[in-house]
């Protein structure tokens, strides 16, 4: 088994590589088929997925059985003013990988986002719900999903939300840092979603990719909360001496309207391979104990 991972230096890519090498995640052992796999990680500098000729060249040289696309342009605010780059990476990068995968008959795992949905309502989004993204970032990710479906016949689209992990920058690290610097931190309380530990995502990617159950899979932590609730638990679990106060999205002054509601329903995941995603509080507690 040979596995090529794009975005290898990112939050998800780094954890994929580590877990494959250790042959386990926090949720348990990886599938037997993946043990002793040859893992080739490519950072964005080593493999620019927006360049089709480069993608084709690397894929034909490596000849992977599976490609996991963990590369993405994830700066939601910057995407509003740099739409070109967001589309190059999130949309056409996904298309290029789908084309290259189909040419060598490899499987493709593509990591999507909760931002492909409208972010409105109060019922968790299912895979069958209409994708109606509101931001440039969300639209670029939806285009990527559509291209994968159009150009690749062996795909798994994995859609997490509110991701945090041991590598790179994320909300948990930010709140821990701020809690050491300030006595009071304000966090929005009018946006709800599912915090998701990267180990849970990686564990389920491994379970899916050894099957032929191709399709769309929401993959987020169980339970939902606001960013304010999330921050309060981070402070509680890290035993920081800091007060987390609620504020509105308007007070936050973001150039992009964030989804008011982005909780996901993992129905397809449960039906295909079983939903072992942890409750967000339990997964967060383990994360903070480990760091």
TrEMBL record:
Record-linked NCBIfam families: rmlD
InterPro entries named in the record: dTDP_dehydrorham_reduct (IPR005913), NAD(P)-bd_dom_sf (IPR036291), RmlD-like-bd (IPR029903)
Protein's UniProt name: dTDP-4-dehydrorhamnose reductase
Highest classification ranks of the organism: Bacteria, Bacillati, Bacillota, Clostridia, Eubacteriales
Keyword annotations: NADP, Oxidoreductase, Plasmid
Gene assigned in the entry: rmlD_3
GO biological process: dTDP-rhamnose biosynthetic process
Species in which this protein is naturally found: Clostridium felsineum
CDD domains recorded: dTDP_HR_like_SDR_e
Short name of any one Pfam family annotated for the protein: RmlD_sub_bind
Keyword presence, Amino-acid biosynthesis: no
Described purpose of this protein according to its UniProt entry: Catalyzes the reduction of dTDP-6-deoxy-L-lyxo-4-hexulose to yield dTDP-L-rhamnose.
Domain of life: Bacteria
Record-level GO cellular component terms: cytosol
Family: Belongs to the dTDP-4-dehydrorhamnose reductase family.
Single GO molecular function: dTDP-4-dehydrorhamnose reductase activity
